[in-house]
Amino acid sequence: MLPQKVLDNFARIPADTTNANDYNGAYNSLVYYAFFPTLSEPRLICPFCPLNEDDPATERATFVAFTKKRQPLFVLQVHPPGYINLLSTRIAADKKMRKILRSLFPETAMPKLHGVSAMGQKLAFYYMDTINGCILPENVPTAGDGEEVDTVPANRWEFDITTEAGHQQFMRAVNDAISMERNCDSWLKWLNEALCITQ
Predict the structure, then answer these.
(1) pLDDT class for 181, splitting at 50, 70, 90?
(2) Distance (Å, rounded) from C-alpha 57 to C-alpha 99?
(3) What tens digit of pLDDT does each residue of 107-166 get?
(4) Taking Cα atoms as reference points, which of 164, 86, 152, 159 lies closest to residue 125?
(5) 6: closest CA among 181, 163, 140?
(6) Which of 88, 85, 80, 86 minimizes the C-alpha distance to 61?
(7) What are the DSSP calls for 150-199, one per residue?
(8) Region 38-44 average pLDDT
């Protein structure tokens, strides 16, 4: 279960808030709890700059955890809870997550780069396979007839971080990222050997 002080940070946020900044402190405490359990971990959490000023999701906070070698490890994107109710904002958040993961692709040394999109307390989980650049869940193309099709359903944000199931799913992604970081040198050695064999 999440520590009470992290849960308290989420409990203080008005349920009907339209301001994603209300969640920044709560998610900041969550990220530090997850990535710095001993306060001696050599990682860095940084805000990520907006990718496109025309994107309705641009103003929302995005945090990236980096390894001590400044390689991307984990992405957390934060939006207000009401975004889950609108197809246009779900599509914008989904596109933004994919853009961020792709933009970090050249610097990523891990076999996977995890991303979490938060809408209020609800979480959707993404990851990019850095061998082939594929991002899951798969992107569902929109119909070309001008009508909006629900390509990013609200139930993608199925986990609530304040529940045990949400906490466990979040920590699975975090622990996978940390495990890959710890094994990064052997992973890079294997990848270099594999590339040499195929050339």
Answers:
(1) confident
(2) 12
(3) 888 889 999 999 999 999 999 998 888 999 987 665 544 555 667 889 999 999 999 999
(4) 159
(5) 163
(6) 80
(7) -SS-GGGS-EETTSHHHHHHHHHHHHHHHHHHHTHHHHHHHHHHHHHHH-
(8) 63
User: What mean pLDDT do residues 72-94 have?
Assistant: 91
133 conformational bin, left if phi > 0, alpha if psi -120 to 50, beta if neither: left
Q: Please answer whether residues 125 and 114 qualify as being in contact, where contact means their C-beta atoms are separated by less than 8 angstroms.
A: yes
| Interatomic CA distance for residues 15 and 18, integer angstroms | 9
Query: Token pair for residue 14?
Result: 């008005």
Distance (Å, whole) CA 196 – CA 125: 33
Tell how many helices (H) and how many strands (E) occur in the chain. 5, 7
Nearest to 80 by CA among 47, 117, 119, 116: 119
pTM summary value: 0.82
* Other Cβ atoms closer than 10 A to 37: 10
